[in-house]
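Re-running DUF6759 domain-containing protein to confirm reproducibility after the cluster update. Everything else is unchanged from the original entry.
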Amino acid sequence: MKKLLLFFSTLLLLNLSAQSKGKDYSDILRSKSIYEINAFLRDAHPDDPRRSVLKPRVMDMMKEYIKNAKPGDLKVKQMQDWLAMLKRRPSTKISFDEMNAIIKQKQIAKYQKELQVGRTAVVYTPSNPKNVYIAPAATTTVAAAIPDTEAAEFNMLMAENPSEHKNKTVKILNSLFDNDPNAKECIVMIENKSDCNIIVRIEGIGTTKYRLPVPSHGDNSIVVEKGDYLFTSIVCGAQYASQKTIQKPLMVALGSSSKK
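Result of re-run:
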């Protein structure tokens, strides 16, 4: 009787584990995909018995991939990071706070480097195909370029003199290092995943307004006063608008690349 109860309990656990994320992992033990097994380890219940089999298996698969990878393979770094995490924890899943900490450290490294070596301004010209989004062709119409109406303003915002840029960078670094919950300001980081350079407009109460230029496939940061803001932008011709309450560091990702 005990064995029967254990059998049904295991089956229930397996079903709940797969259904919790809406994915079918019923055949996961036969999988030979690093990415599929890695996803299972992130999604599965901590007590799922398949973990004891699949975790060492996927770690061996990652080691084998790294061993046989060609020079310059960009996946190697990811596999190494995953292996390091799997040696310390059940899966490669990280919490929201951990992700924020990683982003924070990357931003600190970025701005510390800028202080040391300076920054080259990004030129934003509508005639450059990279700065004009080409709309996908419909079945009956010809694809057309969406005109860039913010090029001059983008260039002006990006063209900070060295003194202005240094002051801004120091302010951002101070905000990144500041963990005081009573601080009146905090940092906002915008990641631009689109094929177009953009300007993000951040409007608060009264005359409080900020403009942040963000290069295509890049990011930029700004320190703002805490409060309620309306974020707006034109991302490859599409209007973006969102109300946000800023009381702690915030990261916003906009757009998606047309490249596959």
